[in-house]
Automatic annotation (TrEMBL):
SMART domains reported for this sequence: RING
Lineage: Eukaryota, Metazoa, Chordata, Craniata, Vertebrata
Single Gene Ontology BP annotation: regulation of canonical NF-kappaB signal transduction
PROSITE patterns documented for this protein: ZF_RING_1 (PS00518), ZF_RING_2 (PS50089), ZF_TRAF (PS50145)
UniProt xrefs under Pfam families: zf-C3HC4_2 (PF13923)
Domain TRAF-type: from-to ranges: 101-144
Name of the protein: E3 ubiquitin-protein ligase NRDP1
Coiled coil start-end: 199-243
A GO molecular-function annotation: zinc ion binding
Length: 244
């Protein structure tokens, strides 16, 4: 829906009015036939129709385009009253900046911050309401550190509340200790598996070295036997030489 034309100061060009709701264009879109509409209005129209509501030319969502720049500029320059005018706001500003103003307007209704309170008050009166709101909270006067609602003052028991907190902290600590324990056990188990694998590799390497050493000793023994045989042959040859 467009902006109520009664909010605007001065004359508003007919071309800046929505062809469906007849309000001043809000988030405008333009059909190929150059008729302009509020975005919400034309999307709602095209759910049940497939043509322009002004001249009945065929229109679909994909053919809609943003408003011409010069028309958009004319629209943004229009001056209008704040929507909270009846509540006392006298602000008049351009359409381009009206949303920003109304989000911060002191006359806008906003909900109470206190949980459970459904009252809406003007922004300028919020502090006064919070001071007397029945859902407001305040720190326990006995010094337990709790913030309590006025309605709960009679039921509030510092010792019971602190005991409950203590039990919650104890439970939380137990859970954290268990989590840390499981994490450490998982890490130790992982390291243990790694060490077992490494030990197996080392044992295989040792067995391989033993096998190589055994073969080497066998080769040494064979060489020593061959040397003795060669020495004996030399000695025998020396004896035969002497005899000759």
């Amino acid at each position: 829906m467009g902006y109520d034309i009664e909010r605007f100061v001065g004359y508003v060009n007919e071309g800046l009015l929505c062809s469906i709701c007849r309000g001043v264009l809000e988030d405008p879109l333009q059909a190929p036939c150059e008729h302009a509409f509020c975005s919400a209005c034309i999307h709602g129209w095209l759910v049940h129709h497939s043509n322009c509501p002004e001249d009945r030319q065929t229109v679909d969502i994909s053919s809609l385009r943003p408003l011409y720049r010069y028309m958009k500029n004319d629209l943004n320059r229009l001056q209008l009253h704040c929507k909270n005018r009846e509540s006392g706001c006298q602000m008049v500003c351009s359409l381009e900046s009206i949303d920003r103003h109304e989000k911060e307007c002191e006359y806008s209704l906003i909900p109470c911050f206190n949980i459970g309170c459904t009252v809406q008050v003007e922004r300028r009166n919020l502090d006064g309401h919070l001071a007397v709101c029945e859902y407001r909270s305040h720190e326990c006067p006995n010094g337990c550190g709790y913030f309590i609602l006025s309605a709960e003052d009679i039921q509030h028991n510092c010792v019971a509340e602190l005991r409950t907190d203590l039990e919650l902290l104890r439970s939380e600590m137990i859970c954290r200790v268990e989590e840390a324990k499981h994490e450490m056990e998982s890490r130790l188990d992982s390291q243990r598996r790694h060490m077992v694998q490494k030990e197996s590799v080392l044992l295989n390497q040792i067995e391989e070295l033993k096998s190589q050493m055994s073969r080497l000793m066998s080769d040494v023994c064979s060489l020593m036997a061959a040397e003795r045989q060669h020495r004996q042959e030399l000695e025998q040859a020396e004896l035969e030489k002497r005899e000759l």
